[in-house]
Amino acid sequence: MPVGLVFVSHSARIAEGVVELAAQMAPTVPLVAAGGTDDGGIGTSYDRVLAAIGEADRGGGVLLIGDLGSAILTAETAVDLLDEEPAGGVRVLDVPIVEGGVAAAVAAESGADLDAVARAAGGDAPEPAPEAPAATEADAPAEAVVALADPEGLHARPAAALVRLAARFDARVTVNGADASSLLRVIALGLRHGERVVVRAEGAQAGEAVAAVAELLRGPAA
């Protein structure tokens, strides 16, 4: 049950465009546009946001992201007007609607919970308390150094694929020191074709994670 996302914009076209973009990288996540007024004008609508929350709720919680200050206010008011909150919880974030929305969608696609999806979007959800399992030989860190094969560099789509891949393993993966669970941090590296990439992981499946991510970065011809 993935976290559902609602995009609240003053423009119906902007909200629909973010849904279209995010869907390219998160095809199984409920993505709902709540843009414009009830008569199709520029503005926001409590009724549209309320309906969108219900549509996005699949049991994993719902995250709302707005484009401007009053959109956030509309989203927060709509949440206050809910007869019953989604079982998985509901949150409103004031983050860039495109960058934060796409990052949230990729995190939700990987199975992250509501707090983790909010953090991926750039929100201030609390970090979970770290676990301290007994160290074993299998938990030893693993590392690989590869040259980035993609001729376009590590842009949004391959970065999203990397984030989803890294999430499959019981390991904490970093790419040139950036947390591989965060699409925004991976994209911010600005890695270009041929650049040196250090993939490192710690955890029970560190070796498998590094091997898989390194293979992705090397490309199919490697």
TrEMBL record:
EC number(s) recorded for this UniProt protein: 2.7.1.121
Name of the protein this chain belongs to: Phosphocarrier protein HPr
InterPro entries assigned: DhaM (IPR039643), DhaM_N (IPR012844), HPr-like (IPR000032), HPr-like_sf (IPR035895), PTS_EIIA_man-typ (IPR004701), PTS_EIIA_man-typ_sf (IPR036662), PTS_HPr_His_P_site (IPR001020)
**Record region (Disordered):** 120-139
Keyword Amino-acid biosynthesis part of the UniProt annotation: no
Q: Extract the signal peptide range.
A: none
Instruction: Name the reaction it catalyses.
Output: dihydroxyacetone + phosphoenolpyruvate = dihydroxyacetone phosphate + pyruvate
Task: Give every PTS EIIA type-4 domain span.
Answer: 2-133
What this protein is reported to do is described as: General (non sugar-specific) component of the phosphoenolpyruvate-dependent sugar phosphotransferase system (sugar PTS). This major carbohydrate active-transport system catalyzes the phosphorylation of incoming sugar substrates concomitantly with their translocation across the cell membrane. The phosphoryl group from phosphoenolpyruvate (PEP) is transferred to the phosphoryl carrier protein HPr by enzyme I. Phospho-HPr then transfers it to the PTS EIIA domain.
